[in-house]
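Page 37, continued from 36.
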């Protein structure tokens, strides 16, 4: 699937409803959200959400632990690339085994692409052999907007002192091709390794790529 050219999108602004529909179905690179509160080096915005088992989960529950936030949409071809290639699951297992908390977040509004029930989310986790600490639901999109999450996948890393140290894409290959996983530089794995070693994160931001998050209006 081809990425939308920014100039083309801007030029088509007068198309109104047609453009809105096109964007809702298209995979695009991440863009800045001026309303976002998440900033590298600053305390990560706090939140409380419900997980796939109906349990209330708060970021504050994981004080002193490194936390990964993974925005997802199981129908997105970019997300499917990382799950079909066992890339996302491998990262989840590698780092949760080392005490990292991995929270998969679904901000798709009810009735839109990517939205699932708790039961469906648990089935996806089992079928894909995924290993997140929890799958969280953000149906109103409040948490996603605060973090400035634009695409799926969109990744964030928070250190034990509560500071945001990475946000952006999972890697540097903005494609849906499975073969590109072999040559990609995985920014999330790299940043987590640096955090584990007590070193500064060398790449703190990158372009998030994938499908636009289907936020409620």
């Amino acid at each position: 699937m081809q990425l939308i050219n920014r100039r083309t999108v801007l030029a088509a602004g007068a198309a109104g409803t047609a453009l809105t529909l096109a964007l809702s179905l298209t995979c695009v690179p991440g863009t800045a959200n001026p309303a976002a509160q998440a900033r590298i080096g600053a305390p990560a915005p706090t939140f409380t959400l419900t997980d796939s088992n109906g349990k209330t989960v708060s970021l504050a529950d994981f004080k002193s632990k490194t936390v990964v936030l993974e925005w997802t949409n199981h129908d997105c071809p970019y997300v499917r690339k990382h799950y079909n290639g066992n890339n996302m699951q491998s990262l989840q297992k590698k780092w949760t085994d080392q005490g990292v908390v991995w929270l998969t977040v679904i901000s798709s509004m009810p009735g839109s692409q990517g939205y699932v029930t708790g039961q469906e989310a648990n089935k996806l986790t089992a079928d894909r052999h995924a290993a997140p600490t929890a799958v969280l639901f953000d149906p109103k999109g409040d948490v996603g907007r605060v973090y400035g999450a634009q695409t799926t996948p969109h990744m964030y890393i928070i250190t034990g002192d509560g500071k945001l140290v990475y946000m952006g894409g999972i890697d540097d290959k903005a494609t849906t091709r499975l073969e590109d996983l072999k040559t990609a530089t995985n920014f999330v794995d790299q940043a987590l390794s640096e955090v584990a070693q007590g070193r500064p994160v060398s790449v703190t931001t990158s372009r998030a790529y994938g499908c636009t998050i289907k936020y409620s209006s």
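The chain has one domain: 6-212. Flag for discussion at group meeting. Confidence is low (pLDDT under 50) at residues 1-32.
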